[in-house]
Amino acid sequence: KRSYNVTLLPGDGIGPEVVAVAKDVLSLAGALEGKASNQSLSLSLSLGPMRVEFRFQEKLMGGAAVDAYGVPLPEETLAAAQASDAVLLGAIGGYKWDNNEKHLKPETGLLQIRAGLGVFANLRPAAVLPQLVDASTLKKEVAEGVDIMVVRELTGGIYFGQPRGFGKNDKGEDTGFNTEVYSASEVDRITRVAFEVARKRRGKLCSVDKANVLEASMLWRKQVTSLASEFPDIELSHMYVDNAAMQLIRNPKQFDTIVTNNIFGDILSDEASMLTGSIGMLPSASVGESGPGLFEPIHGSAPDIAGQDKANPLATILSAAMLLRYGLGEENAAKRVEAAVTETLNNGFRTGDIYSPGTTLVGCKRMGEEVLKTVESQSTVA
Ligand code: NAD
Ligand code: IPM
Ligand code: MN
């Protein structure tokens, strides 16, 4: 029996709605690992069933933690996350806390947990599923077949750079300032991850920067270029971020793997999500050198639809699949979950964000139930 501790951080807004659904999917996919299927019958008979069991612990973070404990990331939450095998996060933030001081913002808690877990590599896959081509705002021939992986640096750059703050300029005017800073080793480690990711995909890596203007980007480009000799099998290119934003819409199929800094990765991954039909579809995995990974949808707490059972839970369910694959090495269960999502879409179920005429409009809970039904019917893929 394989058994894992998973910390759940539902957070705010739609976070609790989508995490509840993903938790059930994880549990069922784990339990089904113990059931002999057609393909793996002989294996199961010889080894005995190997049920995967999860011990979940739920902790507060974000606005919910500000309200309950007066901080967006309580020590207890970070300690629990650090001691677990993997962390699944919903989303944080909301109008209520938007004007809080920085140390009391939900977003600060999110940056703190990423830093606290040392998860510097954020993988954000954006693939256009054939079932959802019509949900994309792009023309069918542009969107069809898109399959991109954005590798976003997550614990450095302007999000964390010092100095930062508010001040006065020499005219006595108020100022706000931040610092975009990267060290060579920070660039090297994310670049290595990206080359490895590209190697497992189609062997193409595009590094996105603003090296025509920013020193941090000049260093970025220099480090990426010098590491390329270690990966002669990968086709490396460089692109300025403004052009990359344009090319993603013009001809997204030219991209395989993209590596970029924290802020460009934030922006480009939201842009890439729209190729796939909705931000409600895009999962992510954040990993470091060691310790538990952090798995979260790329979307936010969607306060405009929170509490209405309208959220698309698929991004979080697919994040749970990434948790199984990258966090726990449970590839078979990960494939089972992904196959269940595909089948649920094949069965015509759609939340509002991916709805198109001729499909069946469902809410968050019902979408979860439909996925659970199909998880059960997936035979193992090992
Ligand atoms: P958002 O991603 O929450 O919402 C943008 C739009 O997409 C909204 O119209 C929303 O309804 C829709 N949307 C998002 N997720 C959806 C889903 N699963 N299903 C259907 N529709 C979905 O971004 P925002 O409105 O800019 O930010 C809202 C709050 O979330 C802010 O406080 C922000 O700081 C926070 N935020 C948190 C995270 C995170 O926790 N990782 C990420 C982004 C934004
Ligand atoms: C994301 C979010 C966060 C980020 C915010 C909420 C701090 O937009 O996870 O993409 O900018 O990283
Ligand atoms: Mn974002």
From TrEMBL:
Its cofactor is Mn(2+); Mg(2+). Gene3D superfamilies: Isopropylmalate Dehydrogenase. Residues 5-371 form the Isopropylmalate dehydrogenase-like domain. Keywords: Amino-acid biosynthesis, Branched-chain amino acid biosynthesis, Leucine biosynthesis, Magnesium, Manganese, Metal-binding, NAD, Oxidoreductase. The keyword Oxidoreductase applies. Pathway: Amino-acid biosynthesis; L-leucine biosynthesis; L-leucine from 3-methyl-2-oxobutanoate: step 3/4. Its EC number is 1.1.1.85. One of its GO terms (biological process) is L-leucine biosynthetic process. SMART domains: Iso_dh. It catalyses: (2R,3S)-3-isopropylmalate + NAD(+) = 4-methyl-2-oxopentanoate + CO2 + NADH. It comes from the Eukaryota. One of its GO terms (molecular function) is magnesium ion binding. Binds 1 Mg(2+) or Mn(2+) ion per subunit. Transmembrane segments: none annotated. Homodimer. PANTHER family: 3-ISOPROPYLMALATE DEHYDROGENASE (PTHR42979). Belongs to the isocitrate and isopropylmalate dehydrogenases family. Catalyzes the oxidation of 3-carboxy-2-hydroxy-4-methylpentanoate (3-isopropylmalate) to 3-carboxy-4-methyl-2-oxopentanoate. The product decarboxylates to 4-methyl-2 oxopentanoate. This is 3-isopropylmalate dehydrogenase. It comes from Oryza meridionalis.
